[in-house]
Automatic annotation (TrEMBL):
Coiled coil: none annotated. InterPro entries: Homeodomain-like_sf, HTH-type_Tx_Regulator, HTH_TetR. This is Transcriptional regulator, TetR family. PROSITE patterns: HTH_TETR_2. Residues 18-37 bind DNA.
Amino acid sequence: MLATMYQLALEKDYRDITVQDLLDRSGIARSTFYAHFRDKEDLLVAGYGVMGMPAVQTRLSNGRARTVLVVCSWLFVATKKHAALTTSLMSGASREIVLSHLENLLIIQVRDHLKRHGGYQSDGIGGEIAVRSLVGGLLGIWRWSVRQGYVDAPLEITGAFNQLISEGLWPQTLDIAAQST
């Protein structure tokens, strides 16, 4: 059923795809579809599940070993692999629906990771600000990359993102201290 959704999404905007279109194209009975999915958005979310889960790695950051969710490379590698589908979904009127589901998926993954590894402060808003800052930054870079036609390699983007997020290191050409004087 996902393959059918992908084919249709390459042909027309996601909002214009109906459950009947999916059934007609796939030859699956309506009752079978609804036995597995509530609606076509449930099928879209299942598509994100096919991407799997981001890996977890131990890395040195500022001299300390940290358990890091490798969410940036996970997202950019999957995007590059499915570039035509991503471009189609993000260029139509349905991009906000697609983006909303992706944002929710990333928020859940990052929040769960931080909670598991002691990086989420549940008292106050600090933990949620950390989650949403990371996800917001990642999605901003991701949207830019999609609009640019995937000109940069996923590993280059990941390296720059991870350096900024985990170590707070800005590109060497940006000297904030010099600019503020």
